[in-house]
Amino acid sequence: MGGPLSRNARSRFVLPRGVPFFLLLSGTILLLYKADTYISQNNIGAHKNVEATPGRKFSRRIENETRHATSNNTLSKVISNGTFDRNFEITWGDGRAKILNNGELLSLSLDKRSGSGFQSRHEYLFGKIDMQLKLVSGNSAGTVTAYYLSSEGSAHDEIDFEFLGNSSGDPYTLHTNVFSQGKGMREQQFFLWFDPTADFHTYSILWNPQCIIFLVDGRPIREFKNAESIGVPFPKNQPMRIYSSLWNAENWATRGGLVKTNWSGAPFTASYRNFSADACIWSSGVSSCCSSSSSSNSSTKAWFTERLDSAGLQRLKWVQKNHMVYNYCKDTMRFPQGLAPECKIS
């Protein structure tokens, strides 16, 4: 990968020692897929070393090391809408990331030398985040468009959307993951029911103390419940920024690295619009949702206590029945010692 990369342009999926290459070369799609996932998920921690590479210089601000969860009794109405120049900053790419149309559109591009990325100016501790994306069209094999929330540090929390490109005519893989206190390996993957390159679609994260819900065009595709009662850490104390990047991951992204990036199609471009955050902004160790001002405590936000109702669960089941292609909660080959505890309640 050429040029400086943001924190999310990282080697998440480098083949670990001890994993035989025949898994990648097996004759069936199922085994190829399992190999891709195994490679991906058992090496997520490797990205922590990428930041130390020369040329990767990024300013990360942690306003306060003490993190506190907010109280739903003092929720404020904090809504960020509108322009990208007001809500985001471009962090890398040497001009490959652009804010256009008076701040209403943001584009990321990738060529053989470098990708590009941006991050939010604010950190958030709970909220409903919406972003419309139009992904790289044509032959996007080897490319990854990442869009996620993350805190800082080795024990970070993270909520991931990642779009793994593919050859022309084949579907994108929508990869989701949840980290809590530095532990991930909670992947679910989907093929979308539409062409994500033909038009903009809305990808949303609803995050509150009870659950995390991933949504596509308002349809829930995944719910990660708070399972602290059975010993599973849940992201609730560390504020997170929004990050996004477009970068080259041809060593793993498409069929475990068997299909490489076709640079004749470069530059590759992904576009963003209509960002909205109905959320609690974290600043200088204080959440805006804990403000004592009457104006900021004018309403209790429905998303703070939202869970999927019966209709939402039915829509979720439809997606998972018809479009899910990987679920860590069913992968006994990868987890022979036993599935994660939260799988019992998912």
UniProtKB/TrEMBL annotation:
Q: Name one GO molecular function term.
A: hydrolase activity, hydrolyzing O-glycosyl compounds
> Which keywords does this chain's UniProt record carry?
Apoplast, Cell wall, Cell wall biogenesis/degradation, Disulfide bond, Glycoprotein, Glycosidase, Hydrolase, Membrane, Secreted, Transferase, Transmembrane, Transmembrane helix
**EC number(s) stated in the UniProt entry for this protein:** 2.4.1.207
Give a GO biological-process term.
Answer: cell wall biogenesis
EC main group: transferase
Q: Transmembrane region positions?
A: 14-33
SUPFAM superfamilies given in the database record: Concanavalin A-like lectins/glucanases (SSF49899)
Q: Name one GO cellular component term.
A: apoplast
Q: What is its main location?
A: secreted
Asked if the keyword Manganese belongs to this entry, the reply reads: no
What is the protein name given in its UniProt record? Xyloglucan endotransglucosylase/hydrolase
Q: Which organism is it from?
A: Escallonia herrerae
